[in-house]
TrEMBL record:
Gene3D superfamilies: 1.10.8.60, 3.40.50.2300, Homeodomain-like, P-loop containing nucleotide triphosphate hydrolases. It holds the Pfam family AAA_lid_14. This is Two component, sigma54 specific, transcriptional regulator, Fis family. GO terms for molecular function: ATP binding; sequence-specific DNA binding. GO terms for biological process: phosphorelay signal transduction system; regulation of DNA-templated transcription. Residues 154-382 form the Sigma-54 factor interaction domain. It comes from the Bacteria. Keywords: ATP-binding, Nucleotide-binding, Phosphoprotein, Transcription, Transcription regulation.
Amino acid sequence: MDEQTSKHPVYIVDDDKALTRSFYLTLKSFGYRDVKTFDNGRQVLDLLPELEHGVLLLDLFMPDVSGEVILQQARDTNPGIQVVVVTGVDETDTAVRCIKSGAFDYLVKPVDADRLITTLRRAMSHALILQQNQRLSRKLLTGGLDRPDIFQDIITRNPKMTAIFSYLEVVATMSDPVLITGETGTGKDLLAQAVHRASGRTGAFISLNAAGLDDNVFADTLFGHVKGAFTDAREPRKGLIEQAENGTLFLDEIGDLSPSAQVKLLKLIQDHVYYSLGSDIPKASKARVIAATNRDLESSRKLGQFREDLFYRINTYRLHLPPLRERGEDVLLLVEHYLAEACIELRLAREHVSPRLADLLQTYNFPGNVRELRSLIYAAMAGGGMSVLEEKLAGLAGIALESCTNSVALPRPGIDDWQYPNPLPSLEQACSRLVDQALRTANGNQAKAAAMLGISRQALNKRIRKIASSR
């Protein structure tokens, strides 16, 4: 039973007390915690506007008030409640009329337990999706975050990142898996921790990097083993999934999993059960799974390298982190943060970023993203200060320019056939000409021109402004 589904209310409205009692016991046996019964239609009619979103099992024919009246009122006053009509009349016209009036489904008595639970689960899932969409719409309209403190470890003022945070606040409390994608070093682990904090789960946040793990190591690490499961298994050991009970299991580099490991993970996510190595006793899991990868799982799925059923299971809620080169406004913000952090940790006097270094930082492409930026700053402070970083980036900028000159897809003869003026142009003049040519080739499209030059759009904008100011 899905924890989010089971904790939302189910309302049973039927004047047949024996049937109401039977439904109540069935739902309780399947794990539904909040089940309320009404044997009087007028009771629920008065309460409809205040009822929490969930599912209403509604008898159509009652002596005091018609079920169709309650159905209409539910649609008008509380559309977040999904109504499943349950009646002894098997008439197509009645069923069609109820569905058109807003009923989620129509069941004919007697209703067997499996049919009841299957229908109820679908209705509850639909109710939760509607509730989630309403919350997301309100958040997009009003703006702002409910819990900005949850994201304090992620340094940003980028609109794309803020939109991710808003979406995360809406889906964090759901129990379905979350997939976080993005290049290496973009902060997928930090975002996973933010999802866990926002979820309100009482268990621990447990992480496992799946890269390079063979099937046996993966299974043993994730599911644990019993004594004697293999030669060296002298004592039983809990797996990470058990340590994450009522919490979050973060699986990094999920795109590297072998086909066999993918099958094991699919069973865990799909059935919420697992087996420790050496045991045939199933264990239930209430951990929420968050997966992350820097791979293109869609392509891996199409190539048959990643299971299609697993892909759709983990792709319920997807968060894609943009690379740092698309977060130009965050670069200097991150630099100041990590510079202050490094100075404290290394017990060094606080240094400042020179205008030249700021310019170099904002034009650098950061292939390793935020992780690379942090490493550059720590290495510079440990090796002599920010002047070291300035010279390093200046050198990298020269290499990037040379690479750009050699690789830009402009219609021209080979590099060896270029005619160079004498004297040679300055580096700034060469940059200016390259930018002009790229913009002409891209018909003024700055995004395409930036891609040709191998730099970010923000870096190109900065370069254009600099060229304009010097003319």
